[in-house]
Amino acid sequence: MEAMSVSIPPLFRCPISLELMKDPVTLCTGVSYDRESIERWFQEGHFSCPSTMQTLDTVEVTPNHTLRRLIQGWCFSNLGKGFDRIFSPPEPPANTKQIGQALLNIKKDPRNLANLRSLGDLARKCEKNRSFIAASGGPSVLISSLFKSKNELEIICGEEALAILASLPIHEAKQECIRSLENQKSIDAISWFVCKGGFHARLHAAQLLHGILTADQNFKAVFRPDEDIFEILGLLLRDSSALAIKTALEILLMISPVRRNRIRVVEAGVIATLVQILTEAERNTAEKAIALLEILCQSAEGRASVCGHPLGIPILVKNIARVSELATDAATGALWQICKNCRTSSVLQDLDEAGAYTKLFLLLQIGCSSSTRGKAKEILRVHKGRSWKENPCFLLTNQLNAGATSKRLQDSNVVSIEGIKLC
Asked: Is there a contact between 363 and 320 (Cβ–Cβ < 8 Å)?
């Protein structure tokens, strides 16, 4: 009877079972469930969030330690009222024997779908299993299941293998295992799925490529992507999936410092997509998108594409002193590249109309990194003879300082704004 008088807080109930959660885990949608209930949901063949019905980018779950501690505290305060203490579940050990047998079976027959699915179930079970698969040469075995084929079974096998590979911590694999992923045959197979696979296969292939590039910094310089990969990465950027956008952005950031790749990224129309992303992006995505724009502006093709887009310069100006210090540095760097190399009247007009000079004056006054400060001052100095002396911010500053400054150097090569020298 006492238990009946105590109401379980709604936050502590599993949305599936409506019972008190004992081991809460969180999906990529941000909704928490009891582990037992959500695993049963997945085993029934569902790949969506039960609460939102949103299709999941991944079925991996994250333990919600904060919620579990809150539930444990609530249960402790209600001992004797029908509720028992909930202890933290022990970390499950890696299923080493099962994993070893599954990898051996796949090595003997890369087209055995049952073995691939068995290994996939083990990989989804816990982080220890994924680490063990990576450390036991799993990537080298699984890459053999990626076939560039129109055969339906081989395509399904490849998609299963990619799903496992995308979930593995590639950086924990042995160096010879990583090198097996970097050979041209493996890269060709991964690239084929990036370009020809369905959405999930493309995403998993992109995640695997991301893992390889992250695990071996030297591979970035020698990586020669297939022509179509740039276009497909551009398509992933336009997807509604946050994971797809994040993965594509990070891959492009890693490969774009190489000049030949920068040009192909621009030719794939990525700059227009980045501008669109920046109109509504959250902070982390905005920082990555602006950083990529700065890299692309190091090439003439990139600068021309930004200047040719109606919102190219305005979106860079808008994000100065708005998102974060990192975004401000990158946006100013991109504008500096444009101003240094594209001194056309139309570019100068776009800068005027976008309020670039006002933003840069304010940036110098509120403070920024020394590198950004230098670039901002150089932009103002390069174009001072045309229009910035007539900028409202500059005129207002002069008026405010009229009583405090006795000497003006308007026609010399030195200009001072509240003690800030632009030469």
From this structure: yes
